[in-house]
Amino acid sequence: MRSWGGKIIVGLLGMLVGGPIGLIIGVLVGHFLDRGVERVRAFNPFRPYAPGEKEALQEALFSAGFSIMGHLAKADGQVSKQEIGAAEAVMTRMQLDEDQRRRAREAFRRGKEDDFPLDQTVAAFREQVRYRRHMVLVFLEVLLQMALADGELAPEEERILFRVAEGLGVPEAQFRQILNMILAQSRFSGAGAGAGGAAADRSRPSLSQAYQVLGVSESATDQEIKKAYRKRMSENHPDKLAARGVPEEMIRVATEKTAEIGKAYEMIKESRGFR
């Protein structure tokens, strides 16, 4: 609901001072004041929940998240057992109960339908979380992790994800930065999953990947690296995510990357020899 307080108050003051013309001018001034208030609210991630808002956000998360995941799985024309398994793995990582799993599977099936309304689904989710910008970014990161669950990001999946980001109002450059960091984290994590011995040495995460996980270049200064590390860890701290209104189920997935961020930072520290 839009605010009318500024229009009413400033309009009445204008009428007292300048009569009917003052009323018109006052309403116009009040209109711009109200718009400014709405912008402040929109960028306030700590705004308290309205009655029923938390439940509505959780439902929006399930409906949009898992249906878009189903749409991503169908992007190449066929949903594989591996992709279904990836969806189930996400449910497990979110620690969903049986009722939540049932709803997630229903949403996933909706997303696989040929006439799935992707743009309308994204628009509805954006409207639901319009005052919680941070949740939009976390939501995109979770979708990226879902898409990368099979170890690769197909061109059609990437196209869909950029379309989702655009629909959520995230600039292409910002989303590409998020994409590059998540891709780097996925490769960094996968590289460290090798077997023992020589195979493990060949699969060790590279220093270049470590820099990409932090979102910095290899030419960055030690201070810039420390700042990027603190920023990345702060962005994914469970308490801060909860304070910004991110549902617990999404927090469980989003904060898993903190371990990889820490490993990447330790690798860079060791190579540079700083504390």
Fold and architecture overview:
There is one protein chain. The protein has helices at residues 5-42, 53-73, 81-93, 98-112, 118-128, 133-147, 155-167, 172-191, 198-202, 207-214, 222-235, 238-243, 248-254, 257-272. The longest helix has 38 residues, at 5-42. It is globular. The termini are far apart. It has 275 residues and is mostly helical.
List the main descriptive attributes of the protein structure presented here.
disordered N terminus, mainly alpha
What order do the helices and strands come in, and which of them pair?
Layout: H1 5-42, H2 53-73, H3 81-93, H4 98-112, H5 118-128, H6 133-147, H7 155-167, H8 172-191, H9 198-202, H10 207-214, H11 222-235, H12 238-243, H13 248-254, H14 257-272
Helix pairs in contact: 2-4, 2-5, 2-6, 6-7, 6-8, 6-13, 8-10, 10-14, 11-14
Beta strands, count = 0
Structural classification? mainly alpha
Strand-residue proportion: under 5%
Mean pLDDT: 76
Spans of at least 5 consecutive residues whose pLDDT stays below 50 are: 1-12, 31-43, 192-202
Continuous helix count:
14
Sheet with the most strands, sense and barrel status: none
Q: What pattern of helices and strands is seen along the backbone?
A: HHHHHHHHHHHHHH
Query: What share of the residues lie within helices?
Result: over 70%
What characteristic shape results from the CA principal axes?
A: globular
Our measurement of the CA-to-CA distance between the termini, rounded to an integer number of angstroms, reads 51 Å
Rg, please?
A: 23 Å
